[in-house]
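Hey,
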Amino acid sequence: MKPIVAIVGREITEAKGVRGEAYGAGRLYSDAITRAGGVPVIVPPVDLDAAAISSLIAGCQALVLHGGGDVDPARYGQPPTAPELYGINTRHDDIELAVVNAALSADRPILAICRGVQIMNVALGGTLVQHIATHGDHTRQFHPVSLVDGCRTALAMGTNTPTACHSYHHQALDRLGTGVNVVGRHADGTIEAVEVDGHRWVVGVQWHPEDSATDDSHQQALFDALIREC
C-alpha cells in the first residue's frame, strides 16, 4: 500500500472548472510526492477540532507543509512591523499549527517547505524575521546552500552543497523553536535548512525543492526520502 501524504491546502479566489471560490494546492508538490511513490491528499483549510485533526493524521503516513503567505506575527508574540507582510490568513495558520503539532506528536515524517518551515518553527515556540534585509537574493533566485555534513537533509539529497535551490521568500527563521537545529545556510547567513530533534524524520527547507524536482535529482530526493521514512 502506498503511503498517504497530507498537504494542507489554501483558500484560492481563482480556479478553473469549479464554481466560485475554491481550495487548492500547488500541483508541483503533488507531482513530486507521486514520483516518490506516495499518494498526496489535500486537506482544505476548514475548521476542524482536535479530534478531527488527530484522526486525519492517524490516517496519513507523512505530512508536507508547503509555501504560501506570511504567518501572522501575533502567532509568535510580535506586532506586525514590516510593511512587506502579505497573505496573512487566520484559517491557514489555525489548521497548519494544529496539523504540525499533531504530526509531531504522532511522529509522522514531515517535509516542511518555505512557509512550511516557518509555521513549524512557530509551532515549536520559535519566531521569524518579518522581512530579511537580503530578500532580493531570495526571491526568484537559484542559489547554493551549505549543509552540515551527515545531517538528514544532506543524506537525503546526496550532497552537502546543493547548488540550485530555488527561493521565493522574504522572511526567515529567527529564534529557533524547541528541538529545532540549523543544518543549512545561505551564503548571507540566512537559515535554509533545519531538522527537529527527537523525531523520526522532520526536515524543513526554506527553498522550494518541488520547483525543480522534475529535472534535479537532488531536489526530488527530499520527497523520495520522506516516502522511504513512511
